[in-house]
Amino acid sequence: MAINYINPGFMGLATIAGDTVRFSDASINARQEVNIPDLIMGDWDRDAYNYGPIEVGGSISGPADEDFSTTIWDWGVTREAPCGLLAPNDVDLQYYCGKNRNFTGMVVNSLTFSCSAGDIAQWSVDVMGITAAPWGSTQSTYTDTKKLLTWDQVNVSGVGSIGENEGISNFEFNVANNVEVVYSLGQEDLFPIQIVPGLRTITGSLSFYNIPEYDGADTWGDTGTSDGSQPYDIQFNIGAGVTITASVRFHRVEATSATGPIVSTVAFSGVGHQSF
Asked: Among 48, 211, 212, 215, fewest CB within 10 Å belongs to which?
């Protein structure tokens, strides 16, 4: 068997909502199953089949650089009042130094930012859409030199008494739109006719060195004090380009002990109407 050539994956590009980004992994595809059900057929082999619905989506992730803009963040979290709709955008992926595929009507199902001390900031989006174009033959290059965003340019503020005197070793922040794919009788093809956003879920965690003094145990359920009765407005500053402020309630502190530094993790959940 002769193989003419095998193309390198590192020659690919990703254009998301008009921005070209470097990424580590991408798995956005149009997926469809061929269903071959168990039926009484008068024979011992299956003779009937059908095509399942087409699902367009997947994930893409990578490191943030110092010019990382708010484009991906705004696309993932902005809800249009009064109905809370999400704005669709195009995602174009190029493969194999000359093959590409464009995905249209894409909305963000979930968006994650994270960073650990001593490492670089990371982003990840899970997307769903309504159309995948046929394979094309676009060949582009992206040669702009960028410095990746290191941990010293990332900080978290507004944690109040949770860890005001402690250093933060890492954080993760996730916004999930919990979208739902909708199909209709009599539609023209097997692609979705619409992507419907659901209730938004905001979750994440902060890891502090040492053990923060406040873990909620002294105040939760105590009706005689107002300490900790309101959500915290915590702020994530991711370089010069992205500032995230979220209204959250902290869960209880989970401390661990090891031969190295003590690290305690505090999970949080978003509550109330968010400003982003």
From this structure: 48
CA distance 161 to 221: 18
- CA distance linking residue 46 with residue 167, whole number of Å: 63
Write the pLDDT tens digit of every residue in 194-216: 999 999 999 999 998 888 776 66
* Number of other residues whose CB lies within 10 A of the CB of residue 60: 21
Distance separating alpha carbons of residues 106 and 89, to the nearest angstrom: 5
Q: Which amino acid is at 25?
A: D
Which letter does DSSP use for residue 73 in this model?
H
> For residue 82, is the peptide bond before it cis, meaning its omega torsion is within 30 degrees of 0?
yes
Contact 116, 80 (CB under 8 A): no
Rounded distance, CA 242 to CA 121, Å? Answer: 12
The answer to whether 56 and 192 have CB atoms below 8 angstroms apart is: yes
Per-residue pLDDT tens over the stretch 96-137: 777 899 999 999 999 999 999 999 999 999 999 999 999 988
List the chain domain ranges. 9-29+51-270
Cβ neighbors of 114 (< 8 A, separation 6 or more) are 121, 122, 170, 171, 172, 173
Question: Is the per-residue pLDDT at 222 higher than 60?
Answer: no
Asked whether 215 and 209 are in contact (CB, 8 A), the reply is no
At 226, the pLDDT band (50, 70, 90 cuts) reads very low
Question: What is the three-class DSSP state of 169?
Answer: strand
